Amino acid sequence: MADVPNPNEVTIDDSRYSRQQYVLGEEAMKKMAVSSVFVSGLGGTGVEVAKNVALAGVRLLQVNDHRVADHFHLGAQYYVRPSEVGSNLAKVSAPRLAELNPYTKVQCSELDLATADLSVLNQFRCVVVCDCDEATAVRVNEHCHARNIPFLWAVQRGLFCAGFADFGSKFTVHDRNGEPVSETLVGSMRAENPLVIECLEHHRHGLESGDTVTFREVSGPELNGRQFEVTVLSPFSFSVPYDGTQGERYREGRGIVEEVKLPQERSYRTLAEQLRAPETLMVDLFKFEAPAQLHLAFRALHAFVAAHQRLPEPWCAADADAVLALASDCNQALESPLDEVPVRVVRALANTARASVVPLSGFLGGFMAQEVLKALSGKFSPLSGFLYLDAMELLPPADADCAAKQTRYDSQLVTFGAEVTARLRAQRLFVVGSGAIGCELLKNFALMGVSTEGEGEIVITDDDIIELSNLNRQFLFREPDVGKHKSECAARAVKQMNEAVRVRALQNRIEPKTVDVFSDAFFCSRDVIVNALDSVPARLYVDQRCVANHRPLLESGTMGAKGHVQVIIPFKTENYGSQRDPEAGGIPFCTLKSFPFKYEHCVQWARALAFEKYFVSLPQQYHKFFFETADVAQQLDGPGVRELKPHVIHRMLRRKPESFADCVQLARFKWERYFNHAPRHLLNAFPADHTLPDGKPFWSSPKRRPTPLEFNVADDDCLNFVIAFANLWAFVWGLPKNEDRAEIAKMAEAVTPPEFVSKKKKIETDESKSATAAAQEQEKSLSDEFIAKVVTELKPVLGKAAPVNVVDFEKDDDTNFHIDYIHAVASLRARVYELPCVDRRETKKIAGNIIPAIATTTAAVSALVALELVKLAAGLEDLENYKNLFLNLALPAMQLSEPGAVTKEKVVGDVYCTVWDRWEVSAGPNPTLQDVIDDLEEKHNVEVDAVFCDGKTLFMSLMPSHRRRLKQPLKQLLKLDDDVKSVDLFCAFVDPDADDDEDDEDEEEEDSAEGAGPSVRVIFE
Asked: What's the mean per-residue pLDDT of the chain?
């Protein structure tokens, strides 16, 4: 292998790779940055592998193919244009791949691996061959296995795809799952053999049997610093091989268990061995026999290629018969032959093998690209053996027109048929978001010919602009696009892939404020809505609009190596909002303020209190007071004076700097208050020997006793705090920044902070009390005399106040001091509480709530979204034909399942409805409320008890005053314009058959006599 740079000498460009680095880690990124990869076979799968590997940032990528492009390649090879049919696939693709990443050198070769001297592969850290025949794959694999070079084989044919991995006889996995290291607080220890550790109440350990842990801060047993293999007993307890009956017993108070990720040595079998006795990844439990059937079908196909030196012709009965005949021989060659040859599967593979379609090539390319990154870095668990996936649900009927027509859609015509292809070309889609998933979806749709004919149109909206960090995974964008709108650039890029695609790019955020843009009529004009969002509230809003307008929704998302796809079909499936993960419990205010026990708590305190309060909240209140409040002088003398927060404004004015030195002085005062005075106040209130009423030590887990710090200008954390605070405060008041560390250090040393004065300060220990409640209590404690004094001092400056700037938090700008300040605060606070510190990058992730992201997962997930779109366009009726997805490329694990069916909920009596149901009322151009109620009661056998609209009560039967509203026209009652076509109401109903004489207890035990029905749409016509 050629000499390569030392990974330790590599610097990773955080501005480009930050999101990927949160997935893989710095060590893995450095290994990749010095690695070289060989990808052969630049069809749809190969180009997808190459694209994702280039984006990941390898040092050298060599793409190889001795073939030329044909019309079938155009179905999935997005770097080949129709005018380039007949050109070498690698030569066409290489320059376009090179545009993706300036850190990756792309080379091109035209070797035929069936005959070439394979010693040329020895220089590479990983070899990938795509869409080649079995004999060539075995030849290359034998060469690589003998040299311990990880080898990957990927094949996509029509409705099917297959992937294989052999990482050699000796491969080291450094992190099998990529999950954060588990850290648990010890609650108690049972003195048994083996020793049983019980977690602190409500704290799960998150471990698995066989995991390794170490201990720190344990008093009693000699556990600290030692490593043990655990046996899980429950989610809250586990045992370790330590005799707890001997030696000292555990003393309550402290103790932390931390997972240790140890390297694992693994060995893999060769392709030749796996072909005879395959190990396969189960991806769909509803197709339990599919992996074995597909393995046999692919073996038969490769046997045909070996015999005829070509693939079967599309839908050629003779060729399909020949493949089927070979399948019987291949079956007998297996160590565990199938009971019978899967005739339908073998014929389907033979009939469509000539085609390459992007939903399957895109998935396989994303999946196998992640295997490449595992090979280079040792991060995550490699695939062991084979991966198979099929889309047999889309097999065209026997009488379908599946003939190729020498067009860019030949692969699709052969695979899905002419009718489905035509339906795809006329689709009207609404794609919400053009980030990582949005880019991949648009690429897939363009290659599939979506929205290229008739009334077909893709509307895409995204209000975001392109940033440098997007380029690592949003592959439609280039560096000249930075600062431009994502939706416009994405639309322009896919037009280059297929000039016939019709894309209309918008820059509107989808939310209630833009309902005039994305109206009900707009939603109803779309065949399918496709989400490409990273915000749960936005997803829920789109979901609500789809439910209201009966539109199918394809929902997807990723987080690092994990991804999901959910298919939502009106009246058939549950909607996105039907299943919600339980919300994570918030961190109690008292924990953040005084009792942090994790570094994350320190970051949250730094962001929410130290940063937001001084540089966002205070300037906002100041600006509102002086520049937005009408008649402020009059209000200062009024009864609502406290609502103006004059004491806050007064404090801001007192701290107004005249020079940068004043900013440094305030920064130095704040340092003293945060990291010296505050801990001392806490220790005064709760000394080291303080006990709780039950006699337990106050300072026991999870509480950690603080240690006051002493300011030292030579301490980087101390000086970084002063520099960042001073510059942020200078920005607020419009003063120029100062980044001269030596000058600021001298200024800080010249400051004499106030001496500590012991005060009786209330320390909040109630975990149920919120920050808002605590602030309200503090506001109430201010005397009227104090407020009056502050008002007196404020009045002379009214109309003379200087303007201020409000800091707008931006995590990705390394020059604005935002993350610098938060990291300095969090690091110092962690030192106060003797917590392990982390680097700036991890602080940025926590403070910015950054979602880890990598192109491989995005590609795989987006491709399967495209596959589900084909099913919707095909009009498949049975729910079992559609597939939801959960994917974890780190393990790797994949689960395809039938979407959850919609459930019926009881309204009243024998009246039921689903979330998709909507009762419509057409009672004239301007019906009264009584007209609407009469219509509902007559059609649905219900008794209306109450009517609501947009959260407002229009009518309640128990309110006598509401009865006069019944005769009012609905438009008048709701103050609607004459041109409004409809309005949605919500009603509560009483069962007319309910027994009014039942006592209250019986009513509670029986089915409720009152219920809520579906939404009611009143149509004015």
From this structure: 94
Within 141-201, strands assigned E span 151-157, 160-166, 171-173, 183-190, 195-199
144 annotated active-site: no
Helix (H) or strand (E) holding 150: none
User: Alpha-carbon distance 502 to 358, whole Å?
Assistant: 19
Token representation of residue 604: 């949250």
Q: Where do we find the tokens 């399957």? A: 360
Residue 403: strand, helix, or coil? coil
Is there a contact between 369 and 54 (Cβ–Cβ < 8 Å)? no
The residues, ordered by sequence, that sit 6+ positions from 827 with a Cβ below 8 Å of its Cβ are 602, 717, 837, 843
Contact 114, 139 (CB under 8 A): yes
Rounded to whole angstroms, how far apart are CA atoms 860 and 383? 15
Name the nearest CA neighbour of 304 among 351, 264, 254, 240.
351
Q: Do residues 143 and 118 touch, judged by C-beta distance below 8 A?
A: yes
d(CA 186, CA 189): 8
Any idea what DSSP says for residue 194?
S
Integer Cα distance of 185 and 701 in angstroms: 7
Percent of the chain with pLDDT over 90: 86
Q: Are 154 and 364 in contact (CB under 8 A)?
A: yes
Whether 529 and 554 have beta carbons less than 8 Å apart is answered as yes
Tokens 């009596």 belong to: 909
* Distance in angstroms (rounded) separating the CA atoms of residues 867 and 873: 10
Residue pointed to by tokens 């240790």: 260
Buried b (16+ CB within 10 A) or exposed e, 759-795: eeeeebeeeeeebeebeeeeeeeeeeeebeebbeebe
State the Cα–Cα distance between residues 767 and 590, nearest whole angstrom. Answer: 6
Per-residue model confidence as pLDDT tens digits over 276-331: 999 999 999 999 999 999 999 999 999 999 999 999 999 999 999 999 999 999 99
pLDDT tens digits, residue range 859-917?
999 999 999 999 999 999 999 999 999 999 999 999 999 999 999 999 998 899 999 99
Instruction: Calculate the alpha carbon distances from 386 to 162, 211, 503 in Å.
Output: 7, 27, 38
Residue 107's contacts (CB-CB under 8 Å, 6 or more residues apart) are 60, 61, 62, 63, 94
* Alpha-carbon torsion (637, 643, 647, 649), positive or negative: negative
- Among 126, 590, 663, 913, the one annotated catalytic: 590
CA–CA distance, 328 with 659 (Å, rounded to integer):
87
CA distance 812 to 814: 6
Q: What angle do CA 734, 740, 743 make, to 5 degrees?
A: 100
